[in-house]
Amino acid sequence: MAAAVDSPPIHRDGASLEAISDAIDTVNILKDGPAFDAESQFDAAKDKSAFRQYEDACERVKSFYAEQHAKQTVAHNLAARERFHSPSRSRPEMGIWEAIEKLNSLIDDSDPDTELSQIQHLLQSAEAIRRDGKPRWMQLTGLIHDLGKLMLFFDDCCEGQWDVVGDTFPVGCRFDDRCVYRETFAANPDSRHPVYSTKYGMYSRGCGMDKLLMSWGHDEYLYLVLKDQSTLPLEALAMIRYHSFYPWHKEGAYTEFMAEGDEVLLNAVRAFNPYDLYSKSDDVPDVAKLKPYYLELIDEFFPQKKIRW
């Protein structure tokens, strides 16, 4: 595997991260949220007529994706996972609620463009799922789905905002035309690689979505942290790992790699998506009032109390 390349220290600017993340979310909301076992109801009266319009996105979003698309290479992703799994990497231990509160410190109250804190967004997602009567494991998934952004606090987990947020996609094969700003992948050296630039690249048709090397970000990081440290079902882990994989769950790209069982994962991610995005316009939750309920929920699926991040 490729060795990690020395890079300057990361500037952990919470306000800047949230500004980019919120700007991306603004254009990410689906026009027609597809159903899972039951169609979401909390968003029935919401206007969903003009979202994910990237041609009208602000320059911040366009610049972000230009950098992300240029730098998300196979070499970078192998190095990122090598660093994550390194026995020498310090892995802080903390509980889920403690992690939520730590992530909340990324918000800069002086930032005029940020109205919601992380904990408010996570509780909005969870509460929307709860109001629709969805299973307890899905409520918890709504509460924790963005905790991968904690990678900004830890050494050797990311190199900048470009490998924390934004749409995700597989590396090691041709970048699909249904990815946003497809033209900016021209700056990625893998787009000219004799193998990685081909349709199937280093994979094979029907190999299964779990065989794809997904672009590094908070989705993949949290999936790797939780996949063997919780009792969450496979569908919940799919919601966490693929909730930013819009080319797949929104545009229908990369389906040639799907194997038996992957349709279940795709349906789960599609079911989760409205709760992540449409809930942002809901009332601001009362954290103190809701905390006891979610502490009980956390204990149900994380009986060991502490997570190695």
TrEMBL record:
Its EC number is 1.13.99.1. Pathway: Polyol metabolism; myo-inositol degradation into D-glucuronate; D-glucuronate from myo-inositol: step 1/1. SUPFAM superfamilies: HD-domain/PDEase-like (SSF109604). GO terms for cellular component: cytoplasm. Its main location: cytoplasm. Its cofactor is Fe cation. Binds 2 iron ions per subunit. It catalyses: myo-inositol + O2 = D-glucuronate + H2O + H(+). One of its GO terms (molecular function) is inositol oxygenase activity. Substrate binds at R52, D108, D109, S110, K149, G166, D167, H243, S244. Keywords: Cytoplasm, Iron, Metal-binding, Oxidoreductase. It is found in: Cytoplasm. Fe cation binds at H121, H145, D146, H218, H243, D276. It is an enzyme of class 1 (oxidoreductase). InterPro entries: Inositol_oxygenase. It comes from the Eukaryota. Gene3D superfamilies: Hypothetical protein af1432 (1.10.3210.10). This is Inositol oxygenase.
